[in-house]
Design brief:
Two copies of one chain form a homodimer. Chain A is built from 22 helices and 15 strands. By secondary structure, chain A is α/β, with parallel strands linked by helices. In chain A, the strands form three sheets. In chain A, strands 1-2-13-12-7-6-3-4-5 form a nine-stranded mixed beta sheet, with helices on both faces. In chain A, strands 9-10-8-11 form a four-stranded parallel beta sheet, with helices on both faces. At the A-B interface, helix 1, helix 8, helix 16, strand 11 and helix 18 of A face helix 1, helix 8, helix 16, strand 11 and helix 18 of B.
Chain lengths: ~550, ~550
């Protein structure tokens, strides 16, 4: 197995990721008091009798460490995030340090590989091809959900066959919830297989008191910020366009906010704030149009607007329209309508209120809503070009204001969506070190006999040497939430807190950023330059951990 | 004047760009034989009696150099390209080396600044803020064309008032053509002001025997290649999407081809080849669909497709449709049609042949064609989402083939457009050095009394120390071409040569790239790492200059 490498890949493969001091030699586990879940304690306890209430774990240096004989299995679950390969190389090196004869198996294309018994042994020659690289291509990823007893039972067969003592699941909140369900099941059955999770997602929404940041968020936001900075500079040079850009990040606005902190755009919407203040689509549009008008009055017919992917779900009138569209488009009759007649069909079937909203939308966005459906016949919310929707509606608003003399500028917009560009970027030094440490640390949790834990690394704004390594019981982060009509135990998702330090810093500065030109141009991620260029964690982390 | 800087900007500002050995001390001009234009010699000679037939110039080290007392004016013309600020800082340092008391004036927002007498003096404190940065924001850029005697006469007033001996115009082929027209006019009038051009454009189409590459092409293509590489890695990890991405680059396919050489995608279209082989839209679609089907047969329902921006202009049936749409939409009647009725209006007015083509297009592309018009009522070709057009038509073709049993895969596509992301990126070491050298060298052309020349740097695949600095008479690159119905003297635009080494390398490898997975992931531009990561010129240059 050999990959044709770019010069950066070749040079970067020699990078030795940093480990916390505690993980550099033999360790012992220092355990805290029993833990409680963040909500619904008695229900979560009832659902996870074997993995509830376990203590927090921190690893501290020890004089010796026993050699334990075990093999490990690893799964990449869900969307790609930079650093996944380093979690796996950390696992590999950590395993070899404890048990030189131990084997690491990778299940292919996500959790489905466990169920279907598709795997490879990850040898040192494979691992060495993937050190410090982006992507999940070493074993592929997938979105099969591990939820059913049949899956667990199928899994245990191959785990036993391969002599796997512990399974490491690298994933987001849902995947880690499922990791815990699996840990509980194997513990209840006394199958002797541990399950450990690792916190992955570029969206940044898997974080809490225990998890400072999910891996990949650093690299992805820095990659997007590079592009936003370039576009800001273009905007500031040509002085004639409004640049609307949407960013991946699911419901939460962590990605947009981190990018805003790095690049200081003219406008950045935060979905959580839009929802908290109950803004209508018209109010959001007016907010942007107002800034456009203010800048126009100062002779500046240009600017940049950052839009979080999730905003559409936070605006009630659009939410209602989408819900009705899903109903209208899901019927058997609707499926027989020819493509070119579909818009008329939709218009004929919408309620008056939603029809008015539909008709107010720009034609191409209306086309997307009426035509682009997922295999279940639902509108694909993630495909809606919110950046165009908003800019077109801002243009319409400004045209109204022009009639009143309230606005006299020119408004021309360009549109961008940044998502896939960042998910497989070459990990930053931070993510390379953080992920390697997460993986290495996971082997310590395994050696300590833990299950139902997530590997965690804390104190991440300090140099890597001072990072704190340990584990958190996954149940500790759970509460009950409604999913598909049923209450289910899930890891509580982190939305942007409008009373948190990062948001407050943003909110305190955005009026200045809106009117003056305060752009910052972060440039591309650097691996070999001065430390202040190469090694800084996210602004979010810096602000959160500032005194 | 102070800009809030990212840590990369701050660190990067200390970089001292490299100069060719010949420019590191006093120089003298070594002149070649008289030159001829590339075409229409007698007509070009007749139009440029004072600037035609001048010799090529090369600068060689000399023992001393006279101090000449002069000021310089500089203009940024047209679209942004990384390195413009370094041309200006090279000009500044070059000027100060010859004439420490000399002043550099920047005309604001493009050639219009000269005509309207809008300018600033570029002092060392301003220059120092912009060294090694992307963007054209130091003085802004614009697209006013310098073509009229009135403009030239207005210009000479301010040039004289400021004691400017020479004007440096940084621009693409059209801007340099106009620089030459201005040089000729001032020479004919004996106004005593020289005009020097600098070859700028990310599109890569300003190149010929004398100009090895236009500046910005290196950085822009490396920035796009970073993103394409990231998307390829994502594609290869998720193994479920076809990623269609379009790249900026005007008519020529240099940008797409360079990106293909750097990233080895599954498919890359080259407009010049499509035209040369007279392919119809259906043939282009079939070419892609055929590769999709081949990969599907091997279980690979994923891949990447690179599309040059200009391809739409090279497909005859689309060209005809656009031409008729422009006529249909330009009438007074069309302007009164309500937005929601516009598509029906268009359909009612197209000829049968073009209507069939229009109806065959995906609905959102049809919307764009019918609705998005420039201020003259024309279809905005650059806004047509060719990446969607092609992927939708590929999907339709595959659906047909599925009925015949010729294809049995799944086809899901994602779409990207990379353009504005690359125009203002922080210049690569190559562009930082090349641009600084172009600017520094321009001051030598000025000191040597040259006008109607473009600043050139050759031997660019060698280390900067060995680069060759000199000048080429702009008339040498000209021929007559039809513009808006009239024959005009213009610099011949370089299209991709299908018999050139870079294309041949691409063509020799693409079948392998299509079927096997040969992706290369270039990663972000590096400034401080190993030389083979930080200092390589484009693959195009490397192949062109290979023995």
């Amino acid at each position: 197995m050999s990959i044709e490498k770019s010069s950066l890949q070749a040079a970067r493969s020699a990078y030795q990721p940093k480990l916390p001091k505690a993980l550099q030699g033999p360790v012992k586990a220092s355990e805290g008091a029993p833990t409680q879940s963040v909500g619904n304690q008695s229900e979560i306890n009832g659902l996870f009798p074997n993995t509830y209430g376990m203590p927090m774990v921190e690893f501290v240096p020890a004089s010796t460490e026993n050699v334990v004989d075990f093999n490990i299995g690893v799964i990449l679950s869900g969307g790609q995030a930079p650093g996944g390969h380093n979690v796996i190389s950390g696992l590999f090196d950590g395993l070899k340090a404890i048990n030189p004869g131990g084997k690491l198996y990778g299940f292919l294309m996500g959790p489905g590989g466990l169920v279907d018994h598709k795997y490879i042994e990850l040898t040192s020659s494979i691992i060495d091809e993937y050190r410090n690289t982006g992507g999940f291509d070493i074993i592929g990823s997938g979105r099969t959900k591990l939820e059913e007893t049949d899956q667990f039972e199928s899994g245990i067969k191959i785990l036993r066959e391969l002599g796997i003592k512990a399974l490491v699941i690298i994933g987001g909140d849902d995947s880690n919830t499922n990791a815990c369900v699996l840990a509980e099941y194997y513990a209840a059955k006394n199958y002797g297989v541990q399950v450990i999770g690792c916190p992955k997602t570029i969206d940044g929404d898997l974080k809490n008191e225990q998890i400072e940041t999910s891996f990949g968020f650093d690299t992805a936001t820095k990659t997007y910020a590079e592009l936003i900075g370039n576009i800001e500079r273009d905007c500031n040079s040509a002085r004639k366009y409004w640049q609307f850009s949407k960013r991946m990040g699911r419901s939460a606005s962590h990605v947009a906010r981190e990018c805003a902190l790095l690049t200081q755009p003219v406008v950045c919407l935060i979905s959580e704030e839009v929802e908290a203040s109950g803004q209508s689509l018209d109010q959001v549009v007016s907010y942007i149009a107002d800034i456009v008008a203010k800048r126009a009055a100062a002779g500046k017919n240009f600017g940049t607007v950052l839009i979080p992917e999730g905003i559409i779900e936070f605006i009630p009138s659009i939410k209602r329209l989408i819900a009705e569209l899903n109903d209208v488009l899901a019927t058997e009759e609707a499926k027989t309508v020819a493509r070119e007649d579909q818009i008329e069909y939709v218009k004929a079937h919408l309620s008056a209120e939603n029809l008015a909203q539909f008709n107010s939308l720009p034609i191409d966005v209306a086309c997307q809503l009426a035509l682009d459906r997922d295999p279940h016949g639902n509108v694909q919310v993630s495909l809606i070009e919110t950046e165009k929707l908003l800019s077109r509606m801002v243009a319409a608003k400004l045209a109204e204001w022009k009639k009143d003399g309230r606005y006299t500028g020119k408004f021309a917009a360009q549109h961008h969506f940044f998502g896939y560009e960042g998910r497989c970027a070459t990990p930053s030094n931070f993510d390379a070190d953080y992920c390697y440490s997460l993986g290495y640390n996971a082997t310590k949790l395994i050696a300590a006999g833990k299950t139902g834990y997530m590997s965690i690394i804390k104190n991440t704004t300090a140099p890597a040497n001072e990072w704190i390594a340990g584990g958190v019981p996954i149940t500790m982060m759970m509460n009950l939430e409604k999913r598909s009509g049923k209450m289910k135990p899930v890891i509580r998702k982190a939305l942007v807190e409008t009373d948190g330090k990062p948001f407050k810093f943003f909110a305190a500065n955005r009026e200045k950023w809106a009117v003056e030109d305060c752009y910052v141009y972060p440039g591309p991620i650097q691996y070999w330059g001065p430390s202040e260029v190469c090694d800084l964690p996210t602004r979010t982390l810096q602000l959160e951990q500032s005194k």
